[in-house]
Amino acid sequence: IKTKGKKLSSKIYFFAGKFESETIVTGTQKAYDEIKKISKSTIQIVIREEGRHNEETWRNEFPLFYEWIVK
User: Fold this and answer.
1) Which one of 40, 41, 54, 71 has the lowest number of neighbouring Cβ atoms within 10 Å?
2) What is the helix (H) or strand (E) element at residue 44, kind and residue range?
3) In whole angstroms, what is the distance from residue 1 CA to residue 71 CA?
């Protein structure tokens, strides 16, 4: 993040679910915070209470991600 983040100008979508692992939410939040400080990118972070690391969660999230990314 520190070496490439300043050069990055893109759209970045962070997604995490609270049922993925004990550290996924804090790790995702930390990465988001670090990139947000130094990057010119458009960044979105979504933390879902019910989110899990599985296809059903991704299938539900994908339309929301897709709508955001094509704006």
Assistant:
1) 71
2) strand 42-48
3) 25
Two tokens, residue 33: 């915070």
Tokens representing residue 50 in the block: 């019910």
pTM: 0.84
Count Cα neighbours of 39 within 13 Å in the Cβ-side half-sphere. Answer: 21
Write the CB contacts of 65 (distance below 8 Å, at least 6 apart in sequence). Answer: 13, 15
Token pair for 71: 């704006």
Q: What is the dihedral of CA 28, 34, 37, 39, to 10 degrees?
A: -80
Q: What is the pLDDT of residues 47-56, one digit of tens each?
A: 999 999 999 9
Q: Where are the beta strands (DSSP E) in 1-71?
A: 11-17, 42-48
